[in-house]
Amino acid sequence: MSTQPARHRVVIIGSGFGGLFGAKHLRHADIDITLISKTSTHLFQPLLYQLATGILSVGEIAPATRLVLRKQKNAQVLLGEVIDIDLVAKTVTSELLNMRTVTPFDSLIVATGAQQSYFGNDRFATFAPGMKTIDDALELRGRILGSFEAAELATTQSARDRLLTFVVIGAGPTGVELAGQIAELADRTLEGTFHNIDPRDARVILLEGAGAVLGPMGPKLGAYAHRRLSSMGVEIQLNAMVTDLDARGVTVKDADGTVRRIESSCKVWSAGVQASPLGRMLAERSEGTEVDRAGRVVVEPDLSIKGHPNVFVVGDLMSVPGVPGQAQGAIQGATYAAKAIKAGLKGQAPQDRKPFKYFNKGSMATISRFSAVCQVGKFEFGGFIAWLAWLALHLYYLIGYRSRIVTVIQWFVTFLGRGRGQMAATEQWVFARLALELVNADGQDSELAGAVGAPPSVEQAPDTRTG
Ligand SMILES: Cc1cc2nc3c(=O)[nH]c(=O)nc-3n(C[C@H](O)[C@H](O)[C@H](O)COP(=O)(O)OP(=O)(O)OC[C@H]3O[C@@H](n4cnc5c(N)ncnc54)[C@H](O)[C@@H]3O)c2cc1C
């Protein structure tokens, strides 16, 4: 019989910035790590919009977590959606198809991030996908390119106009990046490739409920982005609240109360986020822990939850004043939690931990090729230099040399030439999500059926979620 004491067991939930960087930071520790995630990859969300607009492929921005951690002998990776966290028994229950796995832990890092919020109008998702997952981005690519294809075949001007009108809802960094890229796709890449339509006739409309583009980045950078997008032909409509959405368009209410309609087949939602439901579950199970309005866990100064000093919540799921929902917040939070776990192994008591301190390294957003905005401390600048800084930073944080090399090649193709290397799109990318929803709704929801075009075969498709 072994006399070796059992190794400390760390469970990490999520393979995003928080989960992966937490695991990597613990690579030399004498522990056993189990990283559980419902996705098999580490997704680099900041470049999702390039996946959606045909610049990059899935492989470049989403390497398999298992391969990334291949050499880390103290870590194993489990694919599965966490459905339960028992803080008393100290176990995490995850599910893959109909297989359940219960994993015990001594320390837990929860980094399950956030998902799209439709502010209570979840049915909007049917017509305006968000930009959070690989599926979202590929569906969007299919919808964008599919709209041009359908416009080529349209027999009336009104149908052509509707198909060539792209509405991006929300003028934060993601909305700005997407609007800019759809405009460049139409003006540069697709120009001259159709017979019946001129892709340059496409309208790209950026709707924002507040009074400025890139509000959190301040008036100077917001104004810069506004000017640059306008010069590219993007129509920016501020103080415009979306009140309804359907397959054929958007209903908008302006600040003066005017209600109007924009006919558009292709809409994208980039207006809000809500935390993963595991945040609320943790709060309900640890007395005194609360969630904020977005469902993020209000953590203790050491990122743990009340009464459970070895349960850490990091990244987009944590609510810490002054820490934005950005990659840096997740990386720094995960690094802090990993250090606290390592210090605990050396005997440090939880009450002796120094509070988590966030170091703001700044933020940036691209607008178009050769143009970005950048904020570092008091410095705010826009233009080519900001774009170069954006390029370098994103390459630095991409995981893997191969991804970096291929990404640089793809960027050369796109930014110096007119082509894009990833213009494939399939019908399934566009319809699979809706079809699955239809299956789950037992084919009874007539609105969904209308959106999908009610293909009869869809109702017989196997429900892969339940195996
Ligand atoms: C389109 C877009 C653009 C962005 N651009 C930028 C940018 O330019 N700069 C920047 O700093 N930040 C940007 N962000 C924000 C940044 O990506 C996030 O702040 C960061 O990813 C948060 O990391 P995280 O680990 O908390 O969550 P995520 O990276 O979202 O990872 C969550 C992980 O948890 C897993 N998961 C979720 N629920 C479960 C469950 N129940 N069971 C098991 N696993 C689960 C998911 O599969 C995923 O692996 C952007 C985000 C988006 C969506």
From TrEMBL:
Residues 447-467 are annotated as: Disordered. Residues 9-333 form the FAD/NAD(P)-binding domain. It is found in: Cell inner membrane. Pfam families: Pyr_redox_2. The keyword Translocase does not apply. Its EC number is 1.6.5.9. Its cofactor is FAD. Gene3D superfamilies: 3.50.50.100. SUPFAM superfamilies: FAD/NAD(P)-binding domain. It catalyses: a menaquinone + NADH + H(+) = a menaquinol + NAD(+); a quinone + NADH + H(+) = a quinol + NAD(+). It comes from the Bacteria. It is a single-pass membrane protein. One of its GO terms (cellular component) is plasma membrane. Keywords: Cell inner membrane, Cell membrane, FAD, Flavoprotein, Membrane, NAD, Oxidoreductase, Transmembrane, Transmembrane helix. The chain crosses the membrane at residues 381-399. The keyword Plastid does not apply. GO terms for molecular function: NADH dehydrogenase (quinone) (non-electrogenic) activity. It is an enzyme of class 1 (oxidoreductase). Belongs to the NADH dehydrogenase family. This is NADH:ubiquinone reductase (non-electrogenic). It comes from Nocardia panacis.
